Structure formats: structure tokens, C-alpha cells
Amino acid sequence: MFQLQPLPVLPVGGDPAPGFVQRTHANPRFSFDSAAGRYLVLGFAGSGGDPAVQRAMRAITARRDLFDDEHASFFAVTQDPQDEAQGRLADRLPGCRIFWDFDHRIARRYRLIERHAQGADPRALPRFWLVIDPTMRVIENIPFAQDGSDVIRLLDLVAGLPPPGGFAGIPLQAP
Is 72:35 a contact under the CB 8 Å cutoff? Predict the structure, then answer.
């Protein structure tokens, strides 16, 4: 089996979150930058065929109080075409959407794979949660954990964030 080695530098706290345009169920050209202004979570799942990913998705989509498109929005990123074909992952609006990253555009932007690794096994990609502030800067990168503690940590972090307009500690005005 092909084992993909992660690139040495994944986004960490304080880094700008790279923008991209990718397909979702409702929008063939969803611009991730258009979601700025609230907290964002990118869930790099690899494949929804993994039972751990399914458990995590159930826990996240159950938190409608957090992921409501006002306080925060959640975006799962999958590279497995079977997730769409078999309906393993689906949007749960408001608040939860799926990016179909079958061409690895997002994976390359976030340094999960190199440009020439197009046919990579989605299950071999690094899996993590990226929490992003309303100005598109990374707050935290939380790696998947076998025991599911990563989901608890993610939900606790998002629940503890202040309202998006006051995330900097003072009210912010549009430029």
C-alpha cells in the first residue's frame, strides 16, 4: 500500500489560512474566503469511510448551537469520491458543509500532499481539525486522536470562543 508522508509544515496558530475555491454540494465554486467573519473549522477527514471520521462527524453535526453559520461554520474536507457517491458525508445546513477535494486542490494548499501525489490514498493523508478566527488566521491545529479526545477538545475550544465580533478583545469595525 502506498504510504504518503506528510509534508513537514502544516498550518499552526497565527498562520494565515490559505484561501481556495472548491466544490460543495450546493456550490460548484465555493470561495472559502467568503466564509470569513465567523469562526471556521476545517476538518481534514481524508475519507468518510473511516468509522472514526463518522463518529466525529456525528458529534460535530449534533452541536447546532456552535455551528450555526453565525458563531462558527464547519467544513469537512474529503478526498474520497466514495463519500459523495455513497452519501457517507453530507451538508447539514446551517453550519456544516462538505468540500469535495477529489482533485486535491485544498490538500495541496494546506500542504497535506505535494503537487505530484495526485493519486494519494485519502486514508493516508494527515487528519486534523483546523480552527480559524474571523480574520482567517489559524487559532489551533488539532490532530485526530484514536480515542476521540480530539473531537472533545475541538468542541470545547469552539464553545469557549467569544462572539466573532469581539474575538480580538475589542469590538472591530469593517475597514
Answer: no
